[in-house]
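Give me structure tokens for this 192-residue protein.
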Amino acid sequence: MRRFCILAITLAASSAAAAQQSPSSTTPGPITLVLGSSARQYVTWLSAAFDSIPESRYAFRPTPVQQSVGYVAQHLENANYQLCAKFGDLPYRMTAKDSLADTIKAGWPKDTLVARLRASFSFCQRAFATLTDANLSNELPPIVASAPGQTYPRARFVVLFLTDLVDHWSQIANYMRAMGMVPPSALPRAPR
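Here you go.
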């Protein structure tokens, strides 16, 4: 959470400098590099977590009203595509499987859920490659239309993507602890 607060402060403090950059700039810049680095860390942890949780535990939920591990995996996939397609200006064509009910997708086998989640993370990596400090302030319409003419800075969708990763990382890390597992972020670091 501390990292995210620092990230948000850095983003806010640097927005004036980013606005002064040439709009044709294709160099990521310090803001987008920090955003991308933060995203990669959570993607790494989430990927390792979903890989390490046994398939037999994908129906696990700490209480009946909470989401299952499988549900979180399919939710992340869907949210990744929506948010990254928006901020990356990349088309994502939904398939027939994408339109199935979330509760049905949550029951898919682990290998299907993990493969689809990894594909969504790769899609987001391509979306991040389109970001520059200069284009973070570009105005974009919302994902779901609300008020006519409503727009938001591209940075909003990037921050929503990051907060979704952080939120679901916390959720899965707690699920792992409840199952007696150690989350990847708590494992000892390899010596350098």
